[in-house]
Description:
Chains A, B: GO terms for molecular function: DNA binding. The structure is a homodimer. The first copy, chain A, is mainly alpha-helical.
Amino acid sequence: xxxxxxxxxxxxxxxxxxxxxxxxxxxxxxxxxxxxxxxxxxxxxxxxxxxxxxxxxxxxxxxxxxxxxxxxxxxxxxxxxxxxxxxxxxx
Amino acid sequence: xxxxxxxxxxxxxxxxxxxxxxxxxxxxxxxxxxxxxxxxxxxxxxxxxxxxxxxxxxxxxxxxxxxxxxxxxxxxxxxxxxxxxxxxxxx
DNA sequence: ATGGACTTGTCAGATTTTGGCTAATTTAAT
DNA sequence: ATTAAATTAGCCAAAATCTGACAAGTCCAT
Lengths: 91, 91
């Protein structure tokens, strides 16, 4: 998963533990673990908080977060590419 | 909405009434009306049935249906374009 | 002003999502 | 190999969302 992969990188760079970030986000550790692995999706607010904690651009993480959701939506569809292109046109 | 616009066109081309299509899909007319206007989203099965009824490529309607969902997901996000591009890369 | 087509609003029931708990597994160090 | 810490898996109830149906409304032509 897009966001999960990135925040895992960031967490390891800064040598933080899942439970520390979980505490910051006020969720439990298993939940944070799931977000990192993309098993659960973070909420917008949590992504923003993570950007602050890691001191990276909010936009970067929000973009990955959104991309992950789009990917989940289209991944099993034969017409995924075409659909994406159509949306891209109209943005 | 992508799909709604298209099935309205098709319905008018063939001079059919909403209630006729609603009957085919086994839903009530208000529901069909909402699907056409994009107020409710059709389910996959209904889209396929509609393609058969209108005698158009299943793929065409499924693509529009998917595009509509993607659009709903990203439309209010500042990072929509970038996110879409990232997904496009990885398909 | 009646009738037919379509739309709007509402609502309970069904389905999904969510958060947190416990327990299992993996990892790292001694 | 044993322990302790970190991470993951599985489960369950509460909350939120989605669904289908109905009643009532508008709009338009006759």
